[in-house]
């Protein structure tokens, strides 16, 4: 399956799950900022992706949760620490962290969850299958 085919299926999944217009879903669209996804939507998206692509997505695999806890070793004073960035790199090899690393605030983490990162994740999972 090509990345374009994966994108088309991911796009259709997000349109259905988030009730957004087809034109709103671009590779650079962020789930929360651009598509107004809420945390409960993330569960639905994972379920739909599993069904659509015939894969298993473990909890925290696509949307890592450990980094979000402000009392963890990964976050200090509202910023993701070096250790936290390393954790994100390890847990999200499919995401482009280059802009985030310049200003690693907790608020900016949601910008990592883009349509493109989901496509890259699905591509990685299908190749490993």
UniProtKB/TrEMBL annotation:
Pfam families per record: PP-binding (PF00550)
Carrier domain boundaries: 4-79
Top-rank taxon: Bacteria
Keyword Transit peptide in annotation: no
Gene Ontology MF annotations: acyl binding; acyl carrier activity
Keywords: Fatty acid biosynthesis, Fatty acid metabolism, Lipid biosynthesis, Lipid metabolism, Phosphopantetheine, Phosphoprotein
GO terms under cellular component: cytosol; membrane
GO biological process: lipid A biosynthetic process
Gene3D superfamilies per the UniProt record, alphabetical: ACP-like
The name this protein goes by in its record: Acyl carrier protein
Source organism phylogeny: Bacteria, Pseudomonadati, Planctomycetota, Planctomycetia, Gemmatales
